[in-house]
TrEMBL record:
This is Rieske 2Fe-2S family protein. It comes from Streptomyces echinatus. Transmembrane segments: none annotated. Residues 37-146 form the Rieske domain. One of its GO terms (molecular function) is monooxygenase activity. Its cofactor is Fe cation. The keyword Protein transport does not apply. CDD domains: RHO_alpha_C_GbcA-like, Rieske_RO_Alpha_N.
Amino acid sequence: MPPSQISPSLIATLPGHYYTDPDVFRQEQENLFESLWFCAVRSADLDRPGAFRTVQVGRENIVVTRTRTGELRAFLNVCRHRGARLCTEESGEVRRSLQCPYHAWTYDLDGTLIAAPNLIKMPDVDRVAYGLIKVALREWLGYAWVCLADEPPSFEDTVMHAAVERLGDAAAIEHYGTERLALGKRVTYDVKANWKLIVENFMECYHCATIHPELTEVLPEFADGYAAQYYVGHGAEFGEGIRGFTVDGSAGFGRLPEVTADQDRRYYAITIKPTVFVNLVPDHVILHRMFPLAEDRTVVECDWLYAPEVVASGADVSKSVELFHRVNVQDFEACERTQPAMASRAYRGGGVLVPNEHHIGIFHEWLLAGLGETHA
Ligand code: FES
Ligand SMILES: [Fe+2]
């Protein structure tokens, strides 16, 4: 069912309760975050065996570890004995095993139960069967994506395809070599807004002229409310006199080695539903990962990624970080300003999308299909 058309210019958004109702959020946790591929951690954050990180995926806490043989593994962060949370820290490093802080059941980095008080006296306990419960994991763009579904959907169709659909060509994203880049800066934002407001905001540039003075200076076509997500293959071009994707238009770093001439001096934004945004510019990549924690709270981790030699040289990346950091703050403030109004009687029936925003209707259709509904 297409989103309802109010007039030729206007189509309806979702009603306000979609952004405030705990039952809707619970359904999204189950049907989306716990069913689709979810971008969990940056692979290089777990840079050696024993490194781990815990993340919230829907209603589950997941621990991602690097094994002694160098692979990444993901597990439900729940001890098989009596259910204590196994890793209580957000990140850390163990020598060779994960030990439950309750009764000391101990698991190797592959999840197998390897020790427990008196385990020797319980020879019938199957150490694999009582190992940690594995979660599917794929690596792409230098990130570990996990999927809690018993039968994960096709990674190619549901994740990688977003880049093909947006850039019009499967190879285009590969030119940025994102998995080989190094972390120049990470900023974590705790946003008091529903995750869908953040997605919708990212998908439209109708607001750019109002709230993003620095960005529209660099990308003048954004000042016209141009819909960055809408035109397949199109990247917004840097303005004349703009030397780099930086807060003052000053030069950035050299073009990443495989970025092509037609990708040069352009910005591409990709939304990988449900929780990832990828921003491509010639000399760096900015990747947002959202962690929706409640109907009105979303933590966003934003990574600025550069050529390894740029980071290794200690070059000052602050001018390019500052540009998108400002954009983030401007966007998230707008989302936080919107969130309380979602509960207002003024918004019971929702708001409207103008033509430059109509493509957000595609996101709403996708969402409703995921929730098993055909109509808001
Ligand atoms: S709950 Fe983990 S060892 Fe008992
Ligand atoms: Fe914005």
